[in-house]
UniProtKB/TrEMBL annotation:
<keyword id="KW-0808">Transferase</keyword>
<dbReference type="Pfam" id="PF13480">
    <property type="entry name" value="Acetyltransf_6"/>
</dbReference>
<feature type="domain" description="BioF2-like acetyltransferase">
    <location>
        <begin position="163"/>
        <end position="306"/>
    </location>
</feature>
<dbReference type="InterPro" id="IPR016181">
    <property type="entry name" value="Acyl_CoA_acyltransferase"/>
</dbReference>
<dbReference type="GO" id="GO:0016746">
    <property type="term" value="F:acyltransferase activity"/>
</dbReference>
<dbReference type="InterPro" id="IPR038740">
    <property type="entry name" value="BioF2-like_GNAT_dom"/>
</dbReference>
<keyword id="KW-0012">Acyltransferase</keyword>
<protein>
    <submittedName>
        <fullName>GNAT family N-acetyltransferase</fullName>
        <ecNumber>2.3.1.-</ecNumber>
    </submittedName>
</protein>
Amino acid sequence: MTQEAELPGKRVLVLRPDELSPNDRKMWREIRTESGAPANPFLDPEFTAAVGRVRPGARVAVLQDDGSPVGFFPFERGPLGQGRAIGLGVSDSQGAVLRPGIRLDARRLLRSCGLSSWEFDNLEAGQGVFVPHAAEELASPVVDLGEGFERYTERLRAKSGSFLRQTRAKERKLARQAGEVRFVYDALDPGALRALMGWKSAQYRRTGRRDRFAQEWITRLVGLLGESEEPECRGVLSVLYAADRPVAAHFGLRSSTVLSWWFPAYDRAYAKYSPGLVLQLKMLEAAAADGVETVDLGSGPARYKESLKTRDLRVYEGAVVRPVPGGAAHWLGREPARAARRFVRGRPRLAGAASRALAEAGRLRGR
């Protein structure tokens, strides 16, 4: 299913992800490299292809100049042409992949794609086409490992020596009281992955948040990416065991140089040992040895992220909206709630009360 349209000086082909040719994928990666942006796996064609297998509305706009691709814009299309970033809700880096120097008007691009709106919640910095339409700028903490794990731990000690010391003491205590501690960076353990999903689902419900693993498409997407062998976009399951029993795990997505912190969770029966932090330090060490230069911890507040990060990236939340009926429907359905969230996030005491209310709602639902 191919849809053609025109932008000033550009031809636009709208394809399903499975209609991309091997040359399209090659050009996508070449253009991404030329842009100088981090090799984030969420903006690799393999991620879009995987989403296309579980989300029927997934599409890719291929921008051509004189018959050659100069850009790729992955998206999902819903009713009334309302669009969203590919994999919205689980994608930690979003936007278009454009050859340097390409200038576009966001609303004209949407019209060429048959979209009335396009929503994003983790738009990466440097997306000049879409950043003017952002409603909010967010911090996305990262850990820099390019100088090696030892150099990173030196910086961590200088910032918070007690954090590193206490975490390693808890690892030793876990070994003494629960059994031999073992860590596997890239595990092939379906049982551990099922345990991780169960722990994470319980965490979502406990904190009053939507259970992502109750959505079949997300569970299927994780399974597909866990089977991927693409070096620029594949799943990595890291597991911490005590006496050969999984006590913490993380399923992330990696490229050759970037690892995205995606789905971490632990067995609450071992909470006093902070197994999630033990796992994360071991994972950072193993990732650095495996050539990872950056671990993207993702946007959203968390105390452990502040302890571990070396700096923040900027990401953006918002939507491009065209003045058409579908655009109006998007605005009415989304913007009042987005404005309310911004209001709460800007007021720490109110945000704390909202978090406690969500947790109480989760507790009541769990009865």
